[in-house]
Amino acid sequence: MSDIKLKKGYDIKLEGEAPSEFISCDAPKKFAIKPTDFPGLKPKLLVAVGDEVLIGSPLFHEKGNEDLLFTSPVAGKVIAVNRGARRKILSIVVEDNGSGERHELKSLQKDVDAMGSKEVLAAIMESGLLPMIKRRPFARIANPDKLPRDIFITALNTAPLAPKTSLLANNNEEAMIAGINALAKLTQGRVHITFAKADAGMGEVIKDANCLVHTVSGVHPAGNVGVHIHHIAPIKDRNDVVWTLDLQALIFIGRLFQTGKLDLSTIVAVAGSAAIKRGYVKTTVGASIDAIVGTKYDETVRIISGDVLTGTQESMDGFVGITDNLVTIIPEAVEPNFFMTKGWASPGFGAESFWRIFAGKFLKPSKGYVKDTRLGGGARNFVATGVYDQVLPMDLYPAFLTKSIIYRDIEEMEGLGIYEVAEEDFALCEYICPSKVEFQTILRDGLTYVETEG
User: Fold this and answer.
1) Is residue 320 within 8 Å of 263, Cβ to Cβ?
2) Cis peptide before 137 (omega within 30 of 0)
3) Residues of the chain with pLDDT under 70
4) Which of 370, 392, 132, 88 is nearest to 250 (CA)?
5) pLDDT of amino acid 355
6) What's the pLDDT score for residue 386?
7) What is the largest CA-CA distance in the chain?
8) Do 78 and 47 touch, CB atoms closer than 8 A?
9) Measured between alpha carbons, how far is 75 from 355 in angstroms, rounded to an integer?
10) What does the pLDDT read at residue 362?
């Protein structure tokens, strides 16, 4: 076991943390899988509106790869295929019929201990769970044709208002062990699992699993898997492949090999200063937002599937992302602030900022800050202040890497460590940026460019 102590980073203390209790809500009737949750994915539909599907029935696969399946989380009828510009598929919606019938998985025919790497991988792919595993570099869906050097599982989340790991893992310890042992068959290296230092006791629960347990202490982004990889076994080049997944995906994989059945029941936290009903909801992957939040919201709030730094904006008729276990609700900025009262020239009591420009930086509210969706400034020329290094606990230079992406210098991008990072690692740089540079969008553009042209 190793203990990683991080000093760089920044915690955004927001009001509206979900209390550690489960709340009741109307059982969702609609569930969706969204291809847009996966950068670069080109889906090919396998179903049409009106088709009946079972839990685990294939809904679509990646174009050109029929084995990379995306499956239904519930049994019922396909009621919509929502499309956007140029007929881009946004979501496939299934109405749950409550039967719980499951599609038969042909790949799972013996005990996991007797299965080889090819058989384990085939079962994960047939169940539709492979898309929940990402590969580094490039932070895309794991490529089954190239098994990883190591596998990293992150069992902590330090993002604003993130759900508690202890609640997500509750009563799933045996599934975690089964999932780790199955994943260990897919690498010649090691499976690494990382907990928060405060949750070190959870590592004892899985001490018999085939993995190395690590603990991390520090502020956000201490929970980012890219940070863990950097400090445990860094990525050397584009061919040095590791796979990553979160605690939720690990539990799903563990259940699959425990029971031989696909079980996508999960827990979603509802949080945020504008959330009327906060807490944890027991549901299934891809549930409808309206059922999860339990209250009707209007345009004065913003609903986010995920956290405020990396999540996706959704409407009341939207759906929780299949890799998300948090719905954040914050005030929407619908009217401008007068600059003398609540704007840039105000004392800023109760205002939150990384910079020491508001009184709220020193007089911190006990419950956290109430933040809305204002940018807090306008876009301007990129000012290299060196401050970005203070929020990234990696031996990288985010400002220089971002500039190299902008002027398309692949050799320089590689030298500056583009293979080690994903959007979430640059989210805080974007948050504190005085120039309002869209670090995450630029980084994804750079990753795509290097992957295709490098």
Assistant:
1) no
2) yes
3) 1, 334-351, 355-366
4) 132
5) 66
6) 82
7) 70
8) yes
9) 50
10) 55
Treating both helix axes as pointing N-terminal to C-terminal, what angle do 247-259 and 173-183 enclose, rounded to 10 degrees? 90
Strands (E), 273-367: 279-284, 301-305, 312-314, 326-331
Helix (H) or strand (E) holding 292: helix 289-293
Q: Report the DSSP pairing between strands 65-71 and 58-62.
A: antiparallel
Per the CB < 8 A criterion, the answer to whether 286 and 31 are in contact is: yes
pLDDT digits (tens, 9 = 90+) for 41-52: 999 999 999 999
C-alpha dihedral, 420 to 421 to 422 to 426, nearest 10°: 170
Token readout for 255 is 């259940």
Question: Please, which residues have CB within 8 angstroms of residue 414's CB and are 6 or more apart in sequence?
Answer: 237, 238, 450, 454
- Chain segment 229-268, per-residue pLDDT in tens: 999 999 999 999 999 999 999 999 999 999 999 999 999 9
Which ranges of 56-172 would DSSP assign to H, the alpha helix?
A: 117-127, 165-169
Whole-number Å distance between alpha carbons of 328 and 278: 10
Sole residue written with tokens 């190793």: 2
Task: For residue 250, give the amino acid letter.
Answer: L
Mention every residue, 6+ apart, whose C-beta is less than 8 A from residue 267: 163, 167, 168, 280, 281, 282, 283, 325
